[in-house]
Structure formats: structure tokens, C-alpha cells
Task: structure prediction
Amino acid sequence: MLKPSSPRTRAKAAANAPALAPVAPVAPAEGPRALRAVADDHPIALLQTNSLPALVQREIERMILAGDLAAGAQLREAEVAAMLGVSRGPVREAFRALEESGLVRLEKNRGVFVRQIGVEEADDIFEVRAVLDEFAGRRAAQKSTSAQAAELQALVEVMESAVTRGDVDGYHDANLAFHDRIVQLAGNPKLTLLYRRLVNELHLHRRAALGQAGILPVSINEHRSIVGHIAARQAAAAGRALYDHAMASRDRVHRASSIPPPLPRPRKSSR
Result:
């Protein structure tokens, strides 16, 4: 059985509620007044800015990435629809989108399953990600402004604060935001799309590695070095630091699972 949804997700059911009658605007008595905006995660704001399938996709994705839906778990369309208080159509659309993002697999005549990534496949993904990281780091160093480099430094500080608190989840979230921001700064939408899929596929592996004692301070130092190179506009050094960071992450995953890392493959130096 699937777990009950969080209170935040119950807002999705609001899409099935009858529409309210329009309210005529009321003129202010004394000059214009700014309307009070609702929070970004308020049910009304969510429904205004997202389609129902997108909201369903977001919630299923959250449950997978949080570990509420384990790797290999079967997702039954009717059960998910009942849990979220929606019809089966939006769930079906969400499943298709989640397959494209690398989080689920659709098996003919069997159903939908949360993806499982084996060790060999994870190694392959890490190697591809390392190459993309190197490219993104070089481009980010060439294109980013001082203010954007400061954004990256602020995320490193969030990670440092999480390490101090022993907050692995907080560190993980800031770490994802850090790397995603570097990819955005590279200014290549196709790169961003491919990179995010790879990150999704590696998510559960990486969470396990981050739980190792002593890993977070080491990773923090690697992030500081990356930011330093980007801020100094040292493109080759930034790319190399990101490549090495990705491959070190792969080795940490192997140590977490007690599997020896593969022998390093020769890599041509970037010009």
C-alpha cells in the first residue's frame, strides 16, 4: 500500500471542487492597495500556476526522491489516484512524464515501477555526468557574473550550516541546488534537461553515500574549490574541479556499498 500523502498534496483535490462565482472588484476607498498574495505552496497558487497532471507528477516525484516510494515499488494507477484525490487521467499523464525524467519505468502488461539503478549503470551515469559537469563548469566560469558566483557561495554556506547541524537532508537539498545552478549558468537548455535526468537516476545512490561519516566536510571543501574557480573565471580549472568532484562522488557511493570502485579510465586533458 502507498503511504498517505502529506497535507500539502491534499490541495490537488481542489481541482475537482466546483468553481466559485466571480467576485466583482471593489474600488479602494483611499488610493490603490496592493492585493495580498498567497504563498507559493498555497493550494490556490499551485492550481493557478500548474496543470493537475503536473501537480500529480510533482507529488509522486517528491515521494520517490524522499524514499517514501522505494526503488522497484509498483505504482498502481487507481491507488495513486485515490490517494491524491484525483481521477486516473492526470495520474496516467504524470507516469509518462516521470518515465521521461528517469524516475519510473513502464513495462507492457505489467505496470509502472519506481526505477532501480544497478551498480554498473550507476557507474556509467556518473561518467556521463562528470563530462557534463566539466562542460558546465567551464561555461559557467566564462559566463557568470560576480552576483551569480555569490549565489553559488551562498549555497555552499547553506551546506556548511547543514553540516554543523548534522542535517543530511538540508545538505542534500542545497547540494542539488548548487549543481543545478551551475548547469543553468552554462546557458544550454538541452544540457539542463539531460543533466536533471541523470541527477534523478542517481538520487537514491547519492543519498546513501552522503550518510557516511566524514563525507560531508570533504564534499564541502570540493564545493569551495569549485566556487573559487568560477568566481576567478578560471574555466579549465572549474571544469576539472567539477569532473573530479563527480568521480569522487562515484567512489564514495562504492565505499558506501563496500564495492571497490572501477579502475579509472584514461582521460584526455581539456584545452
